Amino acid sequence: MPVTLIPGAATPPGTPLASAWGTHARPDELLRALEGAEARITVRPSGDRAWRAVSGTSLAALQHQAVLEHGTPWPQPLVSHYARYFRDGNRTAYEDLVAARQQRLTRAVVMALTAADGDEADGWLDDVVDGAYLLCEQSSWSWAAHDDVFRCSGDVVPDRGRPFLDLGAGEVAAQLAWLDHVLGARLDSRAPGLRKRLREEVHQRVIQPFLERLDWHWLGLDGDVHNWNPWIHSNLIVAALFLVDDSRLQARVLARCIEGMDRFLAAIPADGAIDEGFAYWWNGAGRALEGLALLEEATAGVLGAGLPVIRELVAFPHRMHIGGPWFLNVADGPARAATALPWDMLHRWAVRLGDDDAARHAASMLAGAPDAAAGLGRVLHSLFRSASAPGRTQGVNGAFPLVAFTYLPSVQIMVARETAGSTRGLLLAAKGGHNGEHHNHRDVGSVVVAVDGTPVLVDAGQPTYTAKTFGPDRYDIRAMQSSWHNVPAPFGMEQGTGSGFAAEVLGLPTAEQPRLRLALGAAYGLQPHQWIRTSTLDRATGRVTIADHWDLRAGPHSGGPHAPAPDGAASDVDITFLASGTVRVGPAGSAEVHPAGIPGTDCGGAAATGRGAALRWERGSAVVLVDEWHLQDPLLSAVWGPKLTRLRFRAPTPSGAPGAFTLTVEATP
């Protein structure tokens, strides 16, 4: 049932924050709790001795790039870049320049905070002033792909009188708020009037639209809550704390943020799973955790963040870990972790909750230096805490936990590895779910298999976003199609789109017997039990088995998608597996996949050990068709290298007769 706004209430009744905080989250009580809030924020303003203690190692990468760009022209997004989204669907021409501008500003703030007093510090402070003012002059803080200007008016330039509050606008507001918090007094001295301008712009572009409009889709008032909700609300919390000087207005904004974020937390299943996957966890659940921590600091613990729902959320990233930089990717997510993730934030939460596995994993993933791409708030937290508490990870065993088994029933995902605590050997991930998930790919029934911590049977993941990505032609994109995932194609069909095209779990896996049995027929518009897939990891034999059984004599029933796969054969069954690395198909029902090292990465795993995957199937049970996918998309090639290879096992099914096909996977010697 959709959650509706309750006038005067801070949170919807019965939701996590409402249950934990009650009337403390109402504007009138927040007004009292927020007195002196800024002085309680962990990240301190310029002049705090911790900023002088920031090490050269932590600063090295930021400093190197900042020095290179100092004195050069700032990135300049133009109208022609903005308009490209509406003209030809290109998002990156505009978004990349916006990101480059904001990342340069983040580096300048860090340099101004850590530079010695004098001309050097003033030079970096001027860079901060210039960058902040450029953002104030930027006609839109929204990304063109999100702005509704074209839909409403047919215009391809921003409408300054009707600002659109999206992820981009929230990010700019939070960045300006953080730089005001840490450099405010120095900005007053160096550029009087700038801080007034920051407040005016944030109020007009972000605060006012947030309070005046209830039709923002990311509020979740229609019951559909996704990662935009905590991402924007957490940034609004920052903006309200540091750039809203009217205490009553500040309390009102924060109460509305709490109410909105509570809808997201209420939608989290008991197992803590995120249907958007590991990559989007950081800009969904991770943003919620940051917002909760900031509210707790600002209110001196009146709004305590130790909520039951958080414990399972904190465990999700390490449960999806394959090995090294590799993670199980579903939906629009890459298989390799980004370099700008705030693992220190997750580590703090894990230690607080006493989750040793999550703490060990986060400690192992901690990078030596923050990346400006993470955003100013995350960079400041990382640098300040590393300087003020340099031994924050001491006492925690930093070895990856590499848990042996995970099953998340809300998303029907199983992850099982051959040996607990080690990447050595096989890992099997199997997914049921449905095709109405957020950022959905048609991947019901898909599997991923890794050898020595490196994926060999893979999910291609996220390509570069364009206008097509979230439009009616989304499934024209190869990476989203079931025919390019590790799933079957009865009658050569694509899976359907929507929550009704789903798997049915027939046998629950256990830690002792990691086997997921799914009825997949409904994903294709068939009767559910017309296709059964059983995915098993046998630790005793060191073998993964994916066994498919089907009976298609009834044919597709009405309401099925009826659409053959782009290059399938409608009278046959295709069972697809997408492989990364070098693929060699041998005689007598055999093939080998050897992962290749990806240039510019240190992926280790099977590429380092020289081992790969040996595939076996019954000779004569299917004809093997090999298709190479030469990756032109930079996001895909950065993860997988120049190509992926699709193996299609085509099994003739005259008149839809019953059939079976079993693929076994073992590690090569």
Describe this structure in words.
This protein is of the alpha+beta class and 669 residues long. The protein contains 20 helices and 21 strands. The strands form five sheets. The chain has an eight-stranded antiparallel β-sheet, with no helix packed on it. It has a five-stranded antiparallel β-sheet with strand order 3-4-5-7-8. A four-stranded antiparallel β-sheet has the order 9-15-20-19, with no helix packed on it. Helix 10 (194-212) crosses helix 11 (228-243). 36% of the residues lie in helices and 17% in strands. A hairpin with an 8-residue loop joins strand 4 and strand 5 (426-431).
**Uncertain residue ranges:** 1-11, 562-569
Cα end-to-end separation = 54 Å
Task: Count every helix, treating DSSP H or I runs of 4 or more residues as helices.
Answer: 20
Mean pLDDT, as a whole number? 92
Largest sheet: 8 strands, antiparallel
* Alpha-beta content class: alpha+beta
Strand order of the biggest β-sheet? 11-12-13-14-21-18-17-16
Percent in helix: 25-40%
Q: How would you describe the shape?
A: globular
Computed over alpha carbons, the radius of gyration is: 26 Å
**How many β strands by DSSP?**
21
**Hey, roughly how much beta strand do the residues contain?**
15-25%
Oligomeric form of this entry?
single chain
Write the layout of secondary structure elements.
Layout (H helix, E strand, L loop, with lengths): L15 H6 L5 H7 L15 H4 L3 H14 L9 H10 L3 H23 L4 H19 L11 H5 L13 H24 L3 H19 L15 H16 L3 H21 L10 H4 L3 H14 L9 H12 L1 E3 L2 E2 L15 H11 L2 H10 L10 H13 L16 E4 L4 E5 L8 E6 L2 E2 L11 E5 L2 E4 L30 E2 L8 E5 L1 E4 L7 E5 L11 E8 L4 E8 L21 E9 L1 E5 L3 E5 L10 H5 L3 E4 L6 E8 L3 H7 L2 E10 L6 E9 L2
Antiparallel strand pairs: 1-2, 3-4, 4-5, 5-7, 6-10, 7-8, 9-15, 11-12, 12-13, 13-14, 14-21, 15-20, 16-17, 17-18, 18-21, 19-20
